[in-house]
Amino acid sequence: MNVADQRRHAGSFLHWLTDAIRTRRETPEVGWGDWQVVDAGDERVLCLQARWQGRCLTTLHNLAPDPVEVAVSLGGSRPEELLADRGYALIEGDEARFELAARGFRWLRVASEGAGTAGEPDRPRAGVSS
Hints:
By secondary structure, the chain is an alpha+beta fold. Helices cover 18% and strands 35% of the residues. It is built from three helices and seven strands, in the order αααβββββββ.
């Protein structure tokens, strides 16, 4: 399938990749946030959290060829699923259980009260210290 064909098909790899790039660009926690590795209780799952301006992005990546389920504390309100390898059930509660398909991934954002998730966030300016 060529690019012209993929542009016409909403389920194509090109559309998925375009959405993934857009999501990354709209997720400043990735580039500007303070990162930490989080123990997901399963060594096959890489879990990272990045906090920035009242928001916390949690990324879960199953590195195994088998599906897994892990528990991770999100420390906030209901998460917004930003990106995933497939559709998953919604998550409720602070200590949430996450299902991940074989080699699956999920990106989830939790915003504290008063923190916005829309619009262009403030970014540090070169030469300006806080």
